[in-house]
Amino acid sequence: MTSNIAESINEVLVSTRELPIYNFLEEVRLLFAKWNCENRQEASYTFTTLIEKFNDILKKNEALCTRMTVVPATKYVYTVHDEQNHFNICLKERKYSCNTFQLDEIPYAHACAVLESKNFEKGSYCCDLFKPKTVLKIYDVLIYPLPHQDNWIIPERVLSEIALPPKFKRPPGRPAKNDRGKSGRDMFEKKNINLCDGCETKGHNRRSCRKYCK
């Protein structure tokens, strides 16, 4: 999960955070079930090679390649002249000198110019994740609704367990960087700042040590 997806979900769940934990989880379940159903339905009614979002990107790239000149070097390697610039494209390895395909995995305008000149289908050069069949498989796992809380069958061993609060109360605010990654014992243990270099005694420094360091 990327940070953009996490931020989008957090924005939707702003008001839901104030609910009790059970109601919060139920709202999250309903939200993801709704998204899964909508995305699955959209993919099932898509008859183009790519889903709508990436199909629009491919059309824009096709419109940009109309004034480009394609010069073949080998069977798979081509040079595309775009005004004063030129770019090298290898269709076999799907590598472009502009690195756009390696990042987006969809033919950019320079690649579209080559595919147009060879009358090749552009869909086979797109990532499978952008195709409706793959999207249907992604949302194939259904999120089933839960029965009402009064109808739950909870084992007796679960009901008998007592959930206790944590032993240490976390201070408010974001933790300091130097405390991250430390155990709870290290964070709440009393720290001794002063240490004598001469006698290795804690609680004082060498300058004030008159008993051992003279």
Q: How is this structure best described in words?
A:
With 214 residues, this protein is of the alpha+beta class. Among the domains are: 13-45; 52-134, no CATH class. The chain has helices spanning 3-12, 21-44, 52-64, 100-104, 109-118, 132-138, 156-159, 184-188; strands at residues 69-72, 77-82, 85-90, 95-96. Helix 2 packs antiparallel against helix 6 and helix 3 packs across helix 5. The protein is elongated, with a radius of gyration of 31 Å.
- Poorly predicted runs of 5 or more residues: none
Could you tell me how far the N terminus lies from the C terminus, measured between alpha carbons in angstroms?
61 Å
Largest sheet at a glance? 4 strands, antiparallel
Shape: elongated
Structural class: alpha+beta
Mean pLDDT: 79
Rg calculated over all Cα atoms: 31 Å
Q: Determine the number of helices (DSSP H or I, runs of at least 4 residues).
A: 8
Order of adjacent strands in the largest pleated sheet: 1-2-3-4
Percent helix, as a range, is 25-40%
Tell me the total number of β-strands.
4
Q: What fraction strand?
A: 5-15%
Order of helix and strand elements from N to C terminus:
HHHEEEEHHHHH
